[in-house]
């Protein structure tokens, strides 16, 4: 007999559902109460622990959770939610939160800006807490010694703004998206448009503060050089909770120059890109070029009737950042890359902070105060992947790639120049290993607006097909990937008895020969693997 077919059966099912939900909330409430009590025991007497801890039943829980989710793919009813969210307001509360999470036996996810592409800083398939660092965002810039202490919850826009407040001739080499959190960005490498001149963000970290598995706050001196090495490109969340970094600022000229030039296949984009591959890692170190490679549909005139006919093609947008004036830029381009046909009128001179706004796609004349805005206006679902190109792709193979992009229709690619300072820094200097020998890095990109599992599957399959198509043209043995372009397609750790072997699959791609050293550091500082997630560095078995 099917119980659901009778009123009593339906009532029984409803009651059963109610009891399950009640049980879940009761368990959540019990964990919340235990955590708050533990937090009170390990914090200053003045702390009202409940004021920084949000249970699922709290009316503000959803707002706090979603405030720093930058990928709407992970704002669905089926997305796993944390049991509680902890929002510390000082460093001692971070220490207490680590101790309590460990003692209660619940995994912790550490979120600074929420830009983890695959959401690993705020979702998990096992019961978890979120340790949300957004309240810890102080920035102390010291122009006299050209350094700054930056807390992990600060965003890049705030860091750039605070530097600009103190100096017009200093900057910092980091990403172009101003809402990216400092904690995750710097601990994973930190890539921006000054890397050919100054390298990565991690190449300018001179000190740090971290909370270890015992809840102890350590600086560079007390943590030791091995752990200090690991958290400069190895991902901080495998080793502890990054509280802050001390960074060395860099000098920027009073005038920088930017440009943006678009070329379609009909405008010899293939020939231009082919030549770009041969010069982009060798051209003047003051010049960085980012290329947006996108399938598009254009209208073309047809005969005297002027009827419009749609035609699919590929557009390549060359975006340049030059640390100098337009006159010197034109000299460099005319000498080394005349194929692009850059003209003086394509160039825009500005100061460095204005270039930050330009690269973040703000309108000309936008106030620099916009960099203090922590909210993101992105409403699109997204997926990203990465690759490294070490040999120029032939014209024939580029033409094959254009056909593939047009066939797939939706995914695009971003090519980012390498060379310069990146060639001079040894691969073992920091955990980030992708240095000399790389011409450019690829970011694969697809965005969509349709909701639902079917749409997710469709677009994920498209970008995965493009990634697969590129296999012959990119690095191999292993195929390299960038940690900050988080991609769970390349491997997931179940954090069981095979943790090391599973971690090595993605670890070799992210860290190449540096993976084994990271494992040794992990084994020394967190042998029980408390700080773990789906792509963390595992300890030795």
Spatial strand order of the main sheet: 15-12-14-13-17-18-16
Q: Unreliable stretches, pLDDT < 50, 5 or more residues?
A: 1-5, 19-25
Distance between the termini: 51 Å
The tally of helices reads 15
Give the averaged pLDDT, no decimals. 94
The rough form would be described as globular
- How many strand segments? 18
Task: Give the strand content.
Answer: 15-25%
Helix content: 25-40%
Structural class: alpha+beta
**Radius of gyration, rounded?**
25 Å
State the major sheet: 7 strands, antiparallel
Quick overview of this protein structure:
The protein is α+β, with helices and mostly antiparallel strands and 541 residues long. It has 15 helices and 18 strands. The strands form four sheets. Strands 15-12-14-13-17-18-16 form a seven-stranded antiparallel beta sheet. Strands 5-6-10-8-9 form a five-stranded antiparallel beta sheet.
């Amino acid at each position: 007999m099917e119980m659901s077919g009778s009123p009593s059966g339906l009532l029984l099912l409803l009651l059963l559902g109610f009891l399950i939900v009640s049980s879940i909330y009761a368990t959540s409430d019990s964990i919340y109460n235990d955590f708050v009590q533990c937090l009170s025991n390990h914090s200053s007497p003045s702390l009202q622990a409940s004021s920084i801890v949000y249970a699922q039943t709290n009316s503000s829980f959803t707002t706090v959770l979603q405030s720093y989710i930058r990928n709407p793919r992970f704002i669905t009813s089926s997305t796993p939610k944390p049991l509680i969210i902890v929002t510390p307001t000082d460093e001692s509360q971070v220490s207490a939160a680590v101790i309590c999470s460990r003692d209660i036996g619940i995994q912790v996810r550490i979120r600074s800006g929420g830009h983890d592409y695959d959401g690993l800083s705020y979702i998990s398939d096992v019961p978890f807490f979120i340790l949300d660092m957004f309240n810890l965002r102080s920035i102390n810039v010291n122009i006299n010694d050209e350094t700054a202490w930056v807390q992990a919850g600060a965003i890049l826009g705030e860091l750039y703004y605070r530097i600009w407040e103190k100096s017009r001739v200093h900057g910092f080499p980091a990403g172009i998206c101003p809402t990216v959190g400092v904690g995750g960005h710097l601990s994973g490498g930190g890539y921006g448009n000054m890397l050919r001149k100054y390298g990565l963000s991690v190449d300018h970290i001179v000190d740090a503060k971290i909370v270890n598995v015992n809840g102890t706050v350590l600086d560079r001196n007390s943590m030791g050089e091995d752990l200090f090495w690991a958290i400069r490109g190895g991902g901080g969340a495998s080793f502890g909770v990054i509280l802050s970094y001390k960074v060395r600022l860099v000098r920027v000229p009073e005038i920088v120059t930017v440009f943006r030039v678009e070329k379609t296949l009909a405008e010899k984009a293939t020939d231009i890109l082919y030549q770009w591959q041969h010069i982009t890692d060798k051209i003047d170190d003051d010049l960085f070029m980012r290329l947006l490679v996108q399938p598009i549909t254009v209208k073309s005139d047809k005969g005297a009737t002027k009827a419009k006919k749609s035609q699919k093609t590929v557009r390549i947008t060359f975006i340049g950042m030059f640390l100098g004036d337009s006159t010197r830029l034109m000299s460099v381009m005319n000498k080394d890359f005349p194929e692009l046909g850059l003209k003086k009128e394509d160039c825009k001179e500005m100061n460095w902070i204005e270039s930050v706004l330009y690269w973040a796609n703000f309108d000309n004349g936008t106030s620099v105060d916009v960099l203090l805005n922590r909210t993101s206006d992105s409403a699109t679902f997204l997926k990203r992947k990465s690759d490294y190109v070490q040999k120029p792709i032939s014209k024939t193979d580029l033409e094959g790639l254009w056909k593939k992009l047009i066939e797939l229709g939706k995914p695009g690619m971003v090519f980012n120049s390498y060379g310069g300072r990146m060639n001079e820094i040894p691969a073992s200097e920091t955990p980030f290993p992708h240095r000399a020998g790389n011409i450019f890095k690829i970011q694969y990109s697809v965005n969509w607006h349709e909701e639902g599992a079917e749409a997710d599957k469709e677009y994920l399959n498209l970008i995965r097909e493009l990634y697969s198509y590129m296999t012959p043209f990119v690095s191999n043995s292993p195929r390299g990937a960038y940690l900050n372009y988080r991609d769970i397609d390349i491997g997931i750790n179940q954090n069981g008895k095979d943790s090391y072997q599973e971690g090595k699959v993605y670890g070799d791609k992210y860290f190449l020969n540096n993976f084994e050293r990271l494992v040794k550091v992990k084994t020394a500082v967190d042998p029980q693997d408390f700080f773990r997630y789906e792509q963390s560095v595992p300890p030795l078995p």
